[in-house]
Amino acid sequence: MDGVLIINKPAKMTSHDVVAAVRRILQERSVGHLGTLDPSATGVLPLVLGRFTRLAAFYNEADKRYEGAIHFGVATDTYDAEGEPAGPRQPVSFSLPELRQAAARFVGTIQQTPPPFSAKKISGVPAYKMARKKQSVELAPKQVEIKEFEILSLKGEIARFKAWVGSGTYIRTMAHELGQILGTGAHLGELIRTAVREFRLEETHSLEELGDSVEVSAIKSTSDKKYYVNTDKMAVNGVAERLFIHPRLILPEFPAVTAPPEALTRIRHGAAVNLPYFGASRPAGPSPVMIRVFADQTHLVAIARQIAGTLFHPKVVLM
C-alpha cells in the first residue's frame, strides 16, 4: 500500500503511537511520519506508507504552521502544561501591544536552545531521560527560522497565537523565552499543528475514521494506546481511494510530467530517460531541476533529476 495519509494526532499519544496504530489498522508494516509532534500537541501528522516512505527525505526541511495558547505567570520544567512549576506564580500586567512587541523579537533567523525535555541527544542519551533524573542538561543552541509569530489575543493570563516556522523550531521554547522577556514566566498551554508544508489540517483524518473506513473494529486501550484489528486485505486496500492524499498534490513545487509507456521500464530500473519536460533548461548553480514523474493521472512512479535538456535520472523510484 503506497500513499500519503494525514492523521489528526490526538493528545496524549506520541507520533510513534500513531504510526503503530496505523500499521495495525492497515496491516502495512512500512509506515513513517514526516515530523514528530509532542504528545500533548494535536493536529497535522503526515504519514508515508509503502514505497512512499522513500519521499521522506524531501520533507526534512519542511515548514510548519501552528496555532495555540501561551499561559503566562508560571514557567514549567518541560516548557508546557505537562511539567512541574519552575517557580512561584508571577503577576501578569503587560498589555497586548507590549506582548506583541516582545513576540516580534522572535521573527527571523535566530539562535534557539531546545528544551531540556526533548529528544535531542547528549553523548547518545536523549535529553529528556537526563532531565527526568534531574541531571544537568546543557544543549547547544541551533539556528532556526521563524517566519511568523503573531499574537492574536490576550485574555487575562492566556494569549492565543499563530506561528509559521522552519524545521527544527520548538514552539515550547518560544513560549518559555517570551515569558522570560516579560518577566512573568510562561509555558505552552495548547498546540495545534495546522500544516506541514502542503499538508493542511482540513485534510486530516482521525484514527477512528481510518478504522471505520476499512470496516474494522478498532478497540483502543487507554492504558497502552494499542489498536487491535480484524479485517481482510481487500477492505484495507480500499482505503487508498477515499483517504489518501491524491498523488498529484504531493510535492507540488516539482513540475509534473507523464512518462510515455516505453520509458517506464527504464525508470523502474533507475536508468536515465528522456521525458516530455517543457520547462526551462537546467539553470546555472548547484540546484538541478527536480520533477515528479507519473505513469498516468494518478500513479506517481518517480522523482527525477534533470541531467540536461529532457534527459532525467530517477532519484527516487516508486514503482
How would you explain this protein's 3D organization?
With 319 residues, this protein is of the alpha+beta class. The chain has three domains: 3-61 and 198-247, no CATH class; 64-194, Pseudouridine synthase (2-Layer Sandwich); 254-317, Archaeosine Trna-guanine Transglycosylase, Chain: A, domain 4, CATH 2.30.130. Helices cover 20% and strands 32% of the residues. The protein is built from eight helices and 18 strands. The strands form four sheets. Strands 1, 2, 3, 4, 5, 8, 9, 10 and 11 form a nine-stranded mixed beta sheet that branches. The chain has a five-stranded mixed beta sheet with strand order 14-16-17-18-15, with helices on one face. Strands 6-7 form a two-stranded antiparallel sheet. The termini are close together. Mean pLDDT is 88; it is low at 216-225.
Class computed from helices, strands and strand pairing: alpha+beta
What would you give as the CATH superfamily of the largest domain? Pseudouridine synthase
Which radius of gyration do the C-alpha atoms yield? Answer: 23 Å
For the terminal residues, how far apart are their CA atoms? 12 Å
Low-pLDDT stretches are: 216-225
- The domain count comes to 3
In helices, the fraction of residues equals 10-25%
Q: Give a quick account of the main beta sheet: strands, pairing sense, barrel closure.
A: 9 strands, mixed
Task: Please count the beta strands (DSSP E, at least 2 residues each).
Answer: 18
- CATH-derived topology of the largest domain: Pseudouridine synthase
- CATH architecture group name of the largest domain: 2-Layer Sandwich
Give the ordered list of helices and strands: EHEEEHEEEHEEHEEHEEHHEHEEEE
CATH level 1 name of the largest domain = Alpha Beta
| Gross geometry | elongated
Mean pLDDT comes to 88
Number of helices: 8
Strand content: 25-35%
